[in-house]
Amino acid sequence: MYARPTSLDEALTILGGQLPIRVLAGGTDIFPAQVPAATWEAAPREALLDVSRVPGLDGIGHAAGMIRRGARVTWARLRDDAALPPGFAALREAARQVGGRQIQARGTLAGNLCNASPAADGVPPLLVLEAEVELASLAGTRCLPLRDFLLGPRRTARRADELVTAILIPERAAADPSVFLKLGARTHLVISIAMVAASLRLEAGRIAAARIAVGACSAVARRLPGLEAKLVGLRPGEARLALEDLSALAPITDIRADAAYRREAARELVRRALAA
Length: 276
Ligand SMILES: Cc1cc2nc3c(=O)[nH]c(=O)nc-3n(C[C@H](O)[C@H](O)[C@H](O)COP(=O)(O)OP(=O)(O)OC[C@H]3O[C@@H](n4cnc5c(N)ncnc54)[C@H](O)[C@@H]3O)c2cc1C
Known about the structure:
By secondary structure, the protein is an alpha+beta fold.
């Protein structure tokens, strides 16, 4: 089955029905996963709910102290949106590095979050922005902090009858400048071995607040609260990083890197992010 509803109500009614159905946004995660080795004709079919014609999902705006980006906003729109406040610098840099231009044109930030890969580049920048995920169903709308939305590899708190409708970012978090650094086996078109987003608020040259998140080094990207607390009061150049500062991480060994390398890479990326 393939459905392409033209209203939010229709989309939510289909999602709330008996038939298991998968939301289709840009398709840049869904379609490559459907054709592992065989031909497209031989690939298993699943019911798809194409949200490309649901109005309101590509909106951008502000409400009640939150910056709102609709679920269909693509990486390309984020990358090119020079009007975003300084806290979005990390997210825009991630957008510049996700896949290539074709992927950036189709792929959405919401799809990146819902796919819940430990190496999803959108997650660390949104964790330091203290983002929330807006979910709608026939029962109503709820918002979850991103840290509660992501439960593990390929697992989120989204119920089967819910559609992610927007990502919300508090304006106060978006005011602090941020950076994003990604390490892969090559510079472009690569899945991250480790990536870091960091945001610092400086007062009189000293760190008044720090938010640091590391991705691809644990089942779900993580903030580093111990390190964030340790940095307060220091000048950025004074920070000395020990491996214990990254003890919240639990990197694995896989085809891209071993666990010890990932931990060391994460420490170096955090050091460079603070210096930047
Ligand atoms: C060549 C290539 C390179 C890539 N490079 C990178 C990279 O460098 N970094 C990176 O992080 N990712 C990368 N990706 C992965 C992918 O492009 C991103 O994760 C993208 O953001 C997914 O968005 P999408 O709109 O295409 O999602 P889709 O493929 O349409 O959907 C992904 C998942 O999210 C669900 N979903 C989507 N929208 C909603 C919604 N509104 N509500 C509920 N569920 C929803 C879908 O059901 C599905 O489970 C790459 C992919 C390819 C093919």
